[in-house]
Amino acid sequence: MLISTRIKFYNFNTNNVTYMRYMFYGCSSVQELNLYNFNTNNVTNMSYMFYGCSSVQELNLYNFNTNNVYNMRYMFYGCSS
Fold first, then answer.
1. Which of 5, 25, 46, 61 could hold 31 in an S-S bridge, CB 3.0 to 4.6 Å?
2. CA distance 53 to 20
3. Spatial separation of the C-alpha atoms in residues 49 and 11, rounded to whole Å
């Protein structure tokens, strides 16, 4: 079984998303996470979003908008690489 170590979201529609809690929780084998232009304008909760992503070496958050986010608790906890 082949497990991808790269995740890319180029045209992923998140325009109406308000809750991204646990979105990538436990993605321990992912090394590269590209969220270029990921629309987070309406998101209010990003807690635990990348929790346990221990192998991530490259995280592209270009244009990541956190203006409306009120909860980022443990967002990057366990991102040790």
1. 5
2. 15
3. 19
pTM for this prediction:
0.85
Bridge partners, 59 (sequence order): 33
What the block records as the tokens of 37 is: 């232009």
The DSSP bridge partners found for residue 7 are 33
8 A C-beta contact, residue 71 and residue 44: yes
- Residue whose entry in the numeric block shows the structure tokens 């998101």: 43
- The alpha carbon torsion through 15, 18, 21, 22 (nearest 10 deg) reads -30
Task: Evaluate whether 74 touches 50 at the Cβ level (below 8 Å).
Answer: no
CA-CA distance, 69 to 81, in Å (whole number)? 25
Q: How confident is the model at residue 6 (pLDDT cuts 50, 70, 90)?
A: confident
